[in-house]
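Thread: Newbie trying to understand structure tokens

Hi all, I'm a second-year student working on a class project, and my supervisor (Dr. K.) asked me to get a predicted structure for one chain before our next meeting. I've only ever worked with sequences, so writing a 3D structure as a token string is new to me. If someone could post the tokens and maybe explain what I'm looking at, I'd be very grateful. Here's the chain:
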Amino acid sequence: MAAKTGSRHLEIVDAALLGAKVVKDASEVVPVLAPLKGAVGIVITILETIRGVKTNKEDWATLGKHLSIQIKGIQEDLSRCPIPHSTTLLLAVNRYEQKLEEILARVRLSASCGWVERHRRYRTDKEEIVELNRDMEITWKDFMREIAIQTHEIAHRVELSVDVIGDNSHINKLVPLLSATGEDHNPCLDGTRTTVLKPIRQWADDPSASQLWWLTDVAGAGKSTIAKQLSTEWKVRGRLGGCFFFDTNRPEATNKQWFCDTIAAQLANNQPRLGSLITEGIKELGPILSVCSFEEKLQKLVIRPMKDVALVLVIDALDECNERDRTILIRNLLSSLSQAPQLKILITSRPERDIVQLLDSYRSHTESLHDIELKSNRDDIAAFVTYKMRGLVQSSELVEEDVNRLTKRVSCLFILASTACKVVHNSPDPQTTLNELIDPKRNPLRDINSLYWTILTKVHNSDQVGKASASKTQEPLVKVLKAIVAATIPLTISTIDGLLGIKNTKRLVGFLSSVLDVRSDETVVILHPTFREFLENETVAGQFHIDMANAHKMMAKGCLEIMKQELQFNVCQLESSFVLNKDVPDLKERISRYISKALQYGCLYWLDHVLQSETSSHDSEIETAALHIAENGYLLFWMEVISILGKVPKAINDLRDVERHKMGKELKAVINDIKRFMIGFSTPISESTPHIYVSAIAFTPKQSYLRQVAEAIFPNTMSVSIGCAENWPKPPREWLGHSSDVVCVSFSLDGHRIASGSKDKTIRLWDVETGQPLGEPFRGHSYTVRSVAFSPDGRRIASGSTDKTIRLWDTETGETLGEPLRGHTDGVSSVAFSPDGRWVASGSDDKTIRLWDAETGQPLGESFRGHRGAVLSVAFSPDSCRIASGSTDNTIHVWSAETGQPLGEALQGHSGTVFSVAFSPDGYRIASGSRDYTIRLWDAETGETLGEPLRGHTNGVSSVAFSPDGRQIASGSWDTMIQLWDAKSGQPLGVPFRGHKDGVMSVTFSPDGLRIVSGSGDKTIRLWDARTGRPLGEPSQFPRFSSVGFSPDGSSIASGSMDEEIQLWDTETGRPLIQRFRSQPLDEQFRDHNRAVISVAFSPDGHRVASGGNTIRLWDAKRGQVSFQGHVDFVSSVAFSPDGRWIASGSWDYTIRLWVAETGETLKRPFRGHHSGVLSVAFSPDGRRIASGSWDTMIQLWDSKTGLRLRKPFWGHMGGVMSVSFSPDGLRIASGSMDNTIRLWDTETGQSLGEPFRGHSGAVRSVSFSPDGRWIASGSDDKTIRLWDAETGEPLGEPLRDHSDSVSSVGFSTDGRKIVSGSMDKTIRLWNIETGQEGPSQAIPDILSFGPIPPTSTFTLKSYQKSNGPHTLPRLFGLTSSSHFAPPDFHHCSLLEDGWVSSSDRLLYWVPPHNRYGLQHSHILLIPTTSSQRATWIDFTRFHYGTFWTNCRK
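---
Reply by user tm_fold:
Sure, no problem. This is what the structure looks like when written as tokens:
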């Protein structure tokens, strides 16, 4: 029978709970039901408590059922009652809530009684339940009556209201934070706080009084209660505009984000006549309503509607708003007061230093809220205690005399009185508890800390709690408190249980209901900040002290443990890898279903807790747990959760921070590997969770820890058979990625990222530690990006472009924020964020400066006019009040950021364009860099020059920057150098930083002042040590190749480079060779030239290599190296005679020399006849003649035996002759020239054969005949290779455009099937040419012995000419078919700009930037094979994708 009764009781309660929760959900989203939120929350708490009562179960359940029915009835009637609600209705809501609170107190008392007490109170409870039912019925009827009255009144007012209120439908677009409207706070008791309330009331009614009142006092003095009381009164009187209660227990209520919407929504509700003005503001903001700036939203939605009305705003607990946001809030409110002269603002807060500085002149002069000597304070607290204890006294559970004694004990502070009352109310034995509190010996009420200690001691010693261990750190009570205090965000009871591995959090929290609050969603929060402060203070907390580092350590372990327990593969059961996360229709539901709150918290914040647990040494337990997660593949599952929750950027930042944490080498290496993985594959991880496995693993370097772990667990993925790196790349010395000049660079404020803008129209984001790009380039500008700047919070980037626009970008997604900012009539040369983040300043070629709202992108005021030339640079002062600008008119202006007016006269002194300006960190000085080669320092106040100009650069100074401490200035110049200067003396510090190969266009310091970043016209970004001037990062492993040539047997290639190296390469694999020259003292490279190696040549037997540079050297496997001495200037060309006995050389000393290859001895005198440097020499096939080409535009033919000229020079070229080559029959010479042409010459007559070969748009640096003499290959500064018909001079097909810099050398293999090219882009490329009977054919996708050649069609000239005519060829070197990078069943694929391989709008896989080129051009053998353009081949044998993607796991 008992069981049946208990079951019936639970059924009633659960049904009632279900109904109440439906009402709660409606009250949170439907504005008209908002007043019900507090009441329905209390009803739910009552019902949940009733579930635990032990006596009178059915009576209590019936009461709960009635409450649920009542609240449902209220919802139905209230939903028909239009807003705004009347004051009397809101007061009725308040009365109903107070009655519900009384019931809640009684239910809690009944639920917490012991067996004896339950038996004693059985009859009392039964009678009291009947009385409570009767009281609630009366209160409910009053409530319903008020609803009926308001509904009736509204019905009669509708017609009249339409004209006054206007169209308020737009009000629904506001997103108010209902939890910040003070619903959780109680007003003062009647008759209390009168001495404080009276002067504030008088102030509010006095039009001549100050517009702002700041009520400040210590924590727990009752400020929020006063704020609630006054806001309620002013609302009743129709004077309240709105109120906002900040609260550290609610993360969303600790910033300014929701302030404007919340106030505006209340304003529309409280003051219907202002609805049209608020609607007008909403319409003006339009689509940017949710992203516009705080300032603009405040002005249009709050200040402007109140400009002509006498209303009051209430802002409570301002100190619980973060410091940055509260500063912005206060400054904006203070600056807006003059626009709304009748507006009054009441602010309450603790006296925090920054708030004191801003509001001290508005400080109230009311009596202290916590002064025990003031009778008013004592009387108010006495009234409060009497009211709270009234129910217990009436039920004879407390003696009134003891309550009076309690009153005297707590008369010093409201928080002390409030907490003491809660302790007594929540006790199963109120009288005993009260006696303990007022015991004069123990005196637990001497201050709030003593009371907190008493509360915890009692719970700690309770038999109901028990102990898990002798160690206090393991006691459940302390563990729960640690979790609550250390949590990054408020935790639910179930989350605490999950993280701590316990099941009694709810019970423990119940014992602490006097200091902790459990919200309706089971989130646990600390009731008052003083309790947190007590726990963190070892002196007062004693055994309950929480060491925060230790607490974070516990939380880190808990996070790792929950990850180990709950993480699993495909955690959200995603069906297809074709679908992006954002396109999964029910992703939110999947998250709720499959990822517990505890797991979400653990995945998001374990790194935060590891970081904050830092001590003097690393923690082995944390490391062991983290390594276990790593070793078993859980880190990939963790990335799934991070991907699904959209927190990849946060994870990368956390990994960066944690890597600096003290930890063992093994874990540090793992953390670094994870970080590199997430940086390298941030795009697929962020966009589509399955591609962690489908795409990322295959391209991860082979030696990566994560790769090795993943391959063992997920073997069924595609594999990169060619082109996968062995290791993560080391931070490079040159950051490559832009395809044109890097015009601007900027550090983020945290120093982790660099943004760059380029002539290639893109912006890139880079990771400072690795030098690797973060995600894809930001695309949107249609011309050069001339300036980039990070916002102070690092969340946005502003960019200015020649396309006349400014764009704002989200740094996490790379997406543009809103539309481009338009207003300038010419290119935008410079952008800068104000240090406070409110504004963006822009300078333009249209001679103006503009100011924009950083949040909305709206222009602020008119253009700043005063310059007579283009404005090339703008910079804010540190206080955001001034803007400096530099111009082509050779002057600098300083402007007021507020008014746009110039501050004083123009700063004059430069004799050329001012390219760059910068404020010193203290704002007292301005540095400027100019076309006149100098830097100047100026007094920012007076405009006077400080000292002499800083001289040292040999070209225009393009960029200047102060170090963060203001002691140094960095300058970048078109002379390719960076110089550091002493900002005080103006003297250069050390030698210039050298490394860039073109002008330095932008420099800036890192926030810590230890590094300098530079961007250059050489398309690179470099990072420098600011102390030493040394470049940071590994030097490039890839030299710029100046000369290449095949060995006679075609098995190897020799290369010479601008980096003084000679290297042999295997033509089959592309790997470097060392065995042929193993006897040499140098390992892989022949490095003995101390200048560039311009020319290399194989001997006919392939055993020797000759090179030309600062001298001639012969590299011989048997005899070692031989140096040939004789030329007095640089050797630009070397060639072996066909029999290998002689070496010819051409030099910039205007001569040609002939040498004995065996001995290095020179033969005869130099061949003289040229009038400038000899750039190229070549032997005729019979060895009897030597051809030479020179800078003097002539070609000479020489007798190799006598050294005499055989005939007059060959004239025809209009520029220097860079290359000469004999045809195989010796009858013709081909020449390439600086005049962009190729010519053919008759060797017998010296006459030009036909017209020049035209097609190149740059100097022709190299020409070479095919072995059969029918074709000529040429390489040019225009970055292309061309193939020509040697008979007709016609180009064969389209040029090869795959090199990204000058092609310095080309040559055919001896069998004529391959062409090798060397380039300044640091690559050698090997092209396969398949010949038919009549000539070369379409280039074949051939990986040249890197593995099996894939099936492909071969087009021969013969078959092509049959259908297309005798003199045309198909395009020789275009992109290959996509078939080789398409998985089975997908024959038409596209490699998209962002790296996705797509087919019919389905995303198949993602390719990293370094493999994209090689994937499309995999037929080309690229040397070195580790190049960023390396050939890439994918094996799809075990590839699983689409709806089968989960088969990747074994």
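A couple of things are worth pointing out once you decode it. The longest helix spans residues 115-165. The two ends are 55 Å apart (CA to CA). Feel free to ask follow-ups in this thread.
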